[in-house]
Amino acid sequence: MRVAIFGTRKYDRLYLSAANADHGHELVFFDADLDATTATLAAGCGAVCVFVNDRLDKDTLEKLADLGIRLVALRCAGFNNVDLAAAAALDITVVRVPAYSPHAVAEFAIGLLLALDRKIHRAWARTRENNFALDGLVGRNLHHRVVGVVGTGRIGAIVARTLQVGFHCHVLASDPVEDQSLLEAGVRYVPREELLREAEIVTLHCPLTPRSKHLIDAAALEAARPGLLLVNTSRGGLIDTFALIEALKSGKVGGVALDVYEQEGDLFFRDLSDEIVQDDTFQRLLTFPNVLVTGHQAFLTEEALTAIARTTIANLSAAQAGEPLENRITQDLVR
Fold this sequence. Notes:
Layout: E1 2-5, H1 10-19, E2 26-29, E3 47-50, H2 58-66, E4 71-74, H3 84-89, E5 93-95, H4 102-117, H5 120-128, E6 146-150, H6 154-166, E7 170-174, H7 180-185, E8 188-189, H8 192-198, E9 201-204, H9 218-223, E10 228-232, H10 241-250, E11 253-258, H11 280-286, E12 291-293, H12 302-321
Parallel strand pairs: 1-2, 1-3, 3-4, 4-5, 6-7, 6-9, 7-8, 9-10, 10-11, 11-12
Helix pairs in contact: 1-12, 4-6
């Protein structure tokens, strides 16, 4: 099968090509993200392969359908960038990588928390300028802190278990489905409102759906514990950025670590170091000394990239062979 792969970087090409060695697909790599203006690049292909910032809205999907493309392969778990209703109406099948290396994202989330709480990012910047003063770098122990984990799927469960068992935190969890192993480890499930009210630290590990959009909004932040530390390695749209900035300005939020951003599509995965970034909201976030931002790299480990590539190629091969697609996305997955 000839496959148009959008939004690729050097590591995408390396790992996808390696995974394809025994499958024989013709992989055509594009730096450009997929949207309605770039969809024609996929002409002559049987499928497109996309990532988190590719835009598969109705217009884009219609253009793909006009090219005869009936398969979209996501090389990620989230699918909030796909209009599933339009895909179904156009008879376009959408598959994803539901799990790759949950440890990659979980470990990065904890790494961000430690860096934020102990001000490691600020200390690193200081020592680069030969400033070894410790004023302003006082942090707090994680030991016995109250941490809230929103979403206890594969990633959230690892975070909760690590914090509960490894750091002896008091972990509160919120999820429609309770994980029995977490309960046995001492994690306590509570309603989301109670979690936000009691937790000193909140880390987000849930998908972005219409119901979870702006899960952390002005009302949630107002009800939260003063000095809250917030970590997000899931999807930027879970947080209302404008409300977050106001809470940072007022001191209600004590610190934020973000690997995702609500409007990251025009920023992340690119080198913009020689350009003037036009996103004033993002630039405002970066002015706060208690905000740590990384460019959506929580997934970026050798193990995760290998697993993503293998599952993506396997999805393509299964579709080509007419086999059942266990990783197919249907609208009933949206909750």
